[in-house]
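#struct-pred

JT: dropping the chains for the assembly here, can someone run the whole complex?
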Amino acid sequence: MRRPTDAERQEWEDNGVLFLENAIVGEDLARLQTTFDRCAAEARREWLEGIAKGTRPAAHFDIPRPLEKDDVFIDLIDHPGWYGFLMDFADEDLILLAPQVRTLPVSPISYVGWHPDVPHTTPLHMKAQIYIEDVPADGGAFGYVPGSHKPDAGACPVVRPLDSMPGHKVYPGKAGDVVLFNSYGWHTSMVNRTLKPRKSIILIYEKWSKDRISTKHFAAIAHKCTTPDRRRLFSLDER
Amino acid sequence: MPIIDSHLHVFEKLSDEFPREVNDQCPADRAETAEKLLEVMAANGVDQAILTQIGGTQLTHHRYLQYCLKTYPNRFRGIGLIPRDEWDAPEDHMDRLAENGDIIGFRINEIGGSADPLSQMDVRTFTSYRIWKHAAKKNYVMWLYIRAKDAHQVAFMVRAFPEIRAVFNHLMICPGEGMFSWDGEGRPHINTPVPPMTRYSMLGLHEYPNICVHLSGQYAFSQEAWPYRDLESWHKTLLAKFGADKLMWATDFPWILEDPGYDKLVQVIDELLPDLNAQQKAEIMGGTAKRVLGFPDVAD
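RK: done, full complex below.
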């Protein structure tokens, strides 16, 4: 399992974001890509019906309950390509909040503006965005304002258009690259101006705090989480 | 700054002079006239209004609207409708309605592209394309009450015609299939989550300079009685994203006359956006509509 170097830890602390090239490769990546496409195809009709009813967003397509669909998604949660980084940043006490197995349609606008996910009163909140296919800068790549995660950074301005945010950085990547980011910081999905939907998986983690996640929340996959580390990661036992 | 009610409906009893379609909501003997409207407007300090066509899409169905616009030229501007079977060639219909300059735009409720957001989007294949194209050419306003299945297509059309002034009706909410019903008072009711799921496709439109949003229709979406507190957060979101200079207050007369009453709708912005400064409130209550829709000065 990879652990951050001193330089990487410093970059994380300074910028709130870390780009990991080739975090998942080879057979693991191929299996993930195949499973992603299969599960998306299975869920697509229900998504389209929800769009027509106004009960599901058209701007992004999330596969419902992915952890119950295939073990490949469970294996991502503590994947050695990034799990060691998150454990290190969370002082070895990490829990999963949710996975988002997401396809982002092409659109002239982003589905979300610049925003932080949580206030600083929340325990350290982090996300890992895994690129399933190559994502060019204009293909709905992740955008972040480095340093905006710091408590004294203040709010970022409201900007139009999205790419006029002062100091922001866009993170294009190859399939298998991962962006780790501190969710106190201001971030967005840049506009996907290509002709190809973006496929990525966003894993949402937090430093453990009492009662944040119910022991029943991931009960459906409890039988697949047999090690103490996994049971803790999925909040399966009272603490 | 005038106070402008930027979306409502008037209609006369069915007659040879004023033909219209008849339904449960607008039976043949029901009239909600311009004179009745002007009375309640005067009683509540409202200066001008947008009359949005109701009662049919044919040219003849617009006669009462045209009568009102001609009779009260400095009080009203109109929004017309286009027969669905003329969307392939809507230009003549649009121009004939707009030839006097008082019908300034057209209302549609579908964009007509692929319902699958993962499809390739070519606006030239969308069924409403020629309406948009002609609106761009003639500087007509697009009045939009878009169904949920088309919400993701709007941005493509706006990108193709960024010069068009487009006004999203009724809080930018896009009704979903099977979510429409009539309430106990014979008014439309939309069963939809608020904030709406379509916000992910719509809020980003604030980046385009000619997009406006109506603060109206609360009665149809709220689960509560006036002042519809469950919609307060969504009003604040729209304000934060679009700004007061892109928001327009409206009542959707006559559906609100009995419940909660026109006077209550005049106060609804104070209730749901209590932190507005005077300039912002003036914009929402009429300034935006006057500037964007080109209303004359009331005294003209």
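JT: nice. Chain B touches chain A at residues 115-118, 120-121, 148-149, 151-152, 155-156, 158-159, 174-179, 192-193, 196-201, 203-207, 240-241 (CB under 8 Å). The first helix of chain B runs from residue 34 to 43.
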